[in-house]
Amino acid sequence: MQIITNIQLKQISAKDSYVVLHPLLRMLRVDQIKEFLRTHLRRHALQNDKNTMKVILILLLFCQATFAQVNTIQLLGIDESHLVEQDNYKLTQQTAKAFAAMQAAALYDGIAIQLVSAHRSFERQQGIWERKFKQYTADGMTGKQAITKILEYSTIPGTSRHHWGTDIDITDANAPKQNSLLVTEKFDDNGPFAPLHKWMQANAHRFGFVLVYTNDEKRTGFAYEPWHYSYLPEAKSYLTAYSSREAFAFFKSVGVVGSNYVNRDFWDAYYTRFVKGINPELIDN
Ligand SMILES: [Zn+2]
Fold this sequence. Notes:
Bound molecules: zinc ion
Mean pLDDT: 84
CATH architecture of the largest domain: 2-Layer Sandwich
């Protein structure tokens, strides 16, 4: 307990504090952590000290983490200690293995599957969100309008499947050089990525990968993304383990720009429409 209280909590960011505290927390019993939280909450909760609140929240989330396959801190993109490097991107070990096998099989058929995105941290998603929010509101939109516009293509930080390490965006390195890659039309009919798309439709399942944002008219949320695949054996259980309530609490606690426009009702509607607006194969019933 002494070790933790000696750390200058105010001077470290949410991410750093987790790295610092994580091995220490492993040495503590749950009742010791609870006692620390009780004292610390009394001392700091009423002060407007965002860093301290962040640290406390991460500690709380950690307390709830079990020995399950994945924990909340990993699902929110705060911790990436469970990920491995694959072609300069980060994936879970199982996803990386399955991806490498699929990549080898595709290459045999003349398709060079190339990762263009995999794991993305909460901080990076926060950066994307805040840049867009500031730009749209500077252009004259209200906060609410700006958020609606952001949600055409980007997720609320803490809710991206890219936080998990099970989801990938891919193109074909054998296609002629393209200026912009992730454009829907490039994946259909005679587009440069049509061979990749056809190959994936026929083979991705064999390796555990499925399209997340399908072109099914009944699907809600994000637009059709023919480049975004998810490693089903892990991602399905990750979604089950994902807690919308904890994600909302963390999102509100870190002071993301524009988060004052996102209340609990908005969040719940967003969760149903967007986070759950995916290929039903990826949802545990
Ligand atoms: Zn994606």
